[in-house]
């Protein structure tokens, strides 16, 4: 199907939805909401199509003027100048239309659950995991997002065994979804006397925050255990059974929460994380099916994939998926230059999907 035919279909669907929504025809609230959402999403696409077609009509008019023997030399010169300027604008307009036509990721507008865990490398891996967790906290603050720590488990040297947070704001998942994978660090640890560079790793998982409408979980599929919360070294920090462990029996997924003194609050937080992990699991299956025919996967979310290296002696950060290297590691770790990496990853993913569209 050529692009023109696709655009005609989009405009026709937009007109059809407008007619149905304004007809006064009785429909249930769910159908009305679904149609209204689709209509709103098509508004931007149709506006871009109209702009493109107006540009094409202008091009055709100028071309006819140039071909007309009655057009004087001065008018032809002006028409040629306008046509030349219009050519670049039409390329940009067509690109904008194609981008607007790309299928939307249903999770892009969602909040996210961030999970950072120490990987290989002992204490140094834990320290790096803590720095990554802090990097995302700073990045969230710069974008005006809310960063709520759900659970933190530290090692003996102040590093992070595991850190989980909910990040709330506009298009959080759309910006952070490319961060999932193995992050590697190369540097001289503070405990290293010989000045040797060590390599350690941490794993980052970014999950779209699921709502109950996204994932259906039956009570019979859950086993909920309560136990007494404990601090480092097993020291009791709570005299009541406030900690909660939820096991999803069909998948074997287990989530524990003990940060809150309230058992109810711990259960709510554990369910939020569990729903998001189940939603991510289902998305992973669909993504695997869709990506089977793709040449590469910029945002595959594969937790075992080494995606980025942070080399402190050289002051560089390299994203291996797109071969991007920034010599500004300090600004990346402060969250200030993270957008440069994310923008490049987003552009690469869009380019791949555009190639499939044409």
Straight-line distance between termini:
9 Å
Q: From the structure provided, what is the oligomeric state, counting identical versus distinct chains?
A: single chain
Tally of separate helices: 8
Query: What is the H/E string?
Result: HHHEHEEHEEEEEHEEEHH
The fraction of residues assigned to DSSP E strands is 15-25%
* Count of individual beta strands: 11
Shape: flat
Secondary-structure content class: alpha+beta
Gyration radius over CA: 26 Å
What does the model show?
The chain has 358 residues and is α+β, with helices and mostly antiparallel strands. Helices cover 47% and strands 20% of the residues. It contains 8 helices and 11 strands. The strands form 2 sheets. Strands 2-3-1-5-4-9-10-11 form an 8-stranded mixed beta sheet. Strands 6-7-8 form a 3-stranded antiparallel beta sheet, covered by helices on one side. Strand 10 and strand 11 form a beta hairpin. Helix 1 packs across helix 2. It is flat, with a radius of gyration of 26 Å. About 3% of the residues have low confidence.
Keywords:
8-stranded mixed β-sheet, 47% helix, single chain, alpha+beta, 3-stranded antiparallel β-sheet, flat, 358 residues
Topology, pairings included?
Blueprint: H1 3-22, H2 29-67, H3 73-101, E1 112-118, H4 122-142, E2 146-154, E3 160-168, H5 172-176, E4 181-187, E5 198-208, E6 222-227, E7 243-248, E8 253-257, H6 263-291, E9 306-311, E10 316-319, E11 324-326, H7 329-333, H8 338-357
Parallel strand pairs: 4-9
Antiparallel strand pairs: 1-3, 1-5, 2-3, 4-5, 6-7, 7-8, 9-10, 10-11
Helix pairs in contact: 1-2, 2-3
């Amino acid at each position: 199907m050529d692009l023109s035919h696709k655009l005609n279909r989009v405009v026709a669907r937009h007109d059809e939805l407008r007619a149905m929504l304004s007809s006064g025809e009785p429909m249930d609230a769910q159908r009305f909401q679904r149609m209204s959402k689709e209509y709103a999403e098509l508004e931007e696409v149709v506006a871009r199509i109209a702009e493109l077609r107006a540009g094409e009509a202008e091009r055709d008019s100028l071309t006819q003027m140039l071909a007309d023997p009655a057009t004087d030399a001065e008018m032809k010169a002006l028409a040629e100048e306008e046509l030349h300027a219009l050519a670049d604008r039409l390329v940009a307009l067509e690109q904008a239309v194609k981008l607007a036509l790309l299928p939307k990721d249903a999770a892009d507008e969602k909040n996210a659950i961030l999970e950072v865990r120490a990987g290989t490398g002992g204490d140094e891996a834990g320290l790096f995991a803590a720095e990554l967790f802090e990097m995302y906290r700073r990045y969230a603050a710069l974008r005006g997002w809310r960063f709520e720590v759900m659970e933190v488990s530290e090692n003996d040297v102040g590093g992070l065994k595991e850190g989980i947070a909910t990040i709330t704001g506009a298009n959080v998942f759309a910006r952070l979804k490319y961060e999932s994978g193995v992050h590697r660090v190369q540097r001289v640890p503070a405990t290293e006397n010989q000045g040797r560079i060590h390599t350690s790793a941490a794993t980052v998982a970014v999950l779209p925050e699921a709502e109950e409408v996204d994932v259906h979980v039956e009570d019979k599929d859950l086993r909920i255990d309560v136990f007494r919360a404990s601090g480092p070294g097993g020291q009791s920090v709570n005299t009541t059974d406030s900690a909660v462990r939820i096991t999803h029996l069909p998948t074997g997924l287990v989530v524990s929460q003990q940060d809150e003194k309230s058992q109810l609050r711990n259960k709510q937080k554990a369910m939020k994380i569990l729903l998001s992990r189940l939603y991510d699991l289902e998305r992973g299956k669909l993504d695997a099916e869709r990506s089977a025919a793709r040449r590469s996967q910029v945002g595959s979310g594969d937790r075992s994939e080494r995606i980025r290296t942070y080399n402190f002696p050289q002051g560089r950060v390299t994203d291996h998926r797109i071969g991007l290297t920034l010599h500004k590691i300090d600004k990346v770790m402060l969250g200030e230059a993270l957008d440069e990496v994310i923008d490049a990853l987003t552009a690469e993913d869009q380019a791949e999907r555009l190639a499939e569209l044409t």
